[in-house]
Design brief:
Blueprint lengths: L2 E4 L9 H6 L7 E6 L11 H10 L4 E6 L3 H10 L4 E5 L6 H10 L3 E6 L17 E5 L15 H13 L5 E5 L7 H7 L3 E4 L1 H4 L4 H13 L1
Parallel strand pairs: 1-8, 2-3, 3-4, 4-5, 5-6, 6-7, 7-8
The structure holds D-xylitol-5-phosphate (DX5) and zinc ion.
Keywords: Carbohydrate metabolism, Isomerase, Metal-binding
Protein name: Ribulose-phosphate 3-epimerase
Pathway: Carbohydrate degradation
């Protein structure tokens, strides 16, 4: 079954606990950490992740859009994240980092910006629990889905099958009721949705509607 991860980036930051509770039927809560260096936007850090992990029963899927994830990613596991995603473009030692995240007890995940190909990372896939393919340039919610990423999703799914791996394939950016079926058809199985969930009158219902579409 498809997993739907609402992105708290599109929620009201002054009411984070309530906004997290509003989507408690979701699989994971996607938390976008931005440092104003790796991406041109600034969001939240370790203390807020710690508070969020106490405020909701939904496990936290932390997406680190930051420089020097080798230094910071383990801190997010300690803060209570169940899954930590670092960017391939920012990690100095992705294998060591993935192993450290796993050793600390979280799922290890790596993200690729739209211009970063999957092929150089084929041999690293067994080290990961999830791969995130960005379907917008990271930094902001509410951007239009990049259709040109569909071939990369398809090629990644083929590599996962070829190696007989269990890892999840996540897409993030512009995922909505009108784009989720294309992502699922290309091979994604974990779907981040910010504006499509928090922009809806009933966020919990939006999660159910997205899941139904992804499952076809
Ligand atoms: C963008 C973030 C996304 C963002 C998605 O850099 O990584 O998680 O919240 O928002 P939507 O679903 O509105 O594109
Ligand atoms: Zn994200």
């Amino acid at each position: 079954m498809a997993q739907i991860n609402p992105s708290i980036l599109s929620a009201d930051f002054a009411r984070l606990a309530e906004e997290a509770k509003a989507v408690e039927g979701a699989d994971w809560l996607h938390v976008d950490v931005m440092d104003n260096h790796f991406v041109p936007n600034l969001t939240l850090g370790v203390p807020i992740v710690e508070s969020l992990s106490r405020a909701t029963k939904t496990p936290l899927d932390c997406h680190l859009m930051i420089e020097d994830p080798d230094r910071w990613a383990p801190r997010y596991v300690e803060a209570g994240a169940g899954s930590v995603t670092f960017h391939a473009e920012a990690a100095a030692a992705p294998v060591r980092l993935a192993r450290e995240i796993r050793a600390k007890g979280a799922r290890a995940s790596m993200a690729l910006k739209p211009a970063t190909p999957i092929e150089p990372y084929e041999d690293l896939l067994p080290e990961l629990d999830m791969l995130l393919i960005m379907t917008v340039e990271p930094g902001f919610g509410g951007q239009a889905f990049l259709d040109i990423m569909l071939p990369k999703i398809r090629r990644t799914r083929e590599l996962i099958s070829k190696h007989g791996l269990e890892l999840w394939l996540q897409v993030d950016g512009g995922v909505s009721e009108s784009t989720i079926e294309r992502c699922a058809e290309a091979g994604a199985d974990v779907f981040v949705a910010g504006s499509a969930v928090y922009g809806a009158a009933d966020p919990a219902e939006a999660v159910r509607a997205l899941r139904a579409k992804a499952d076809g």
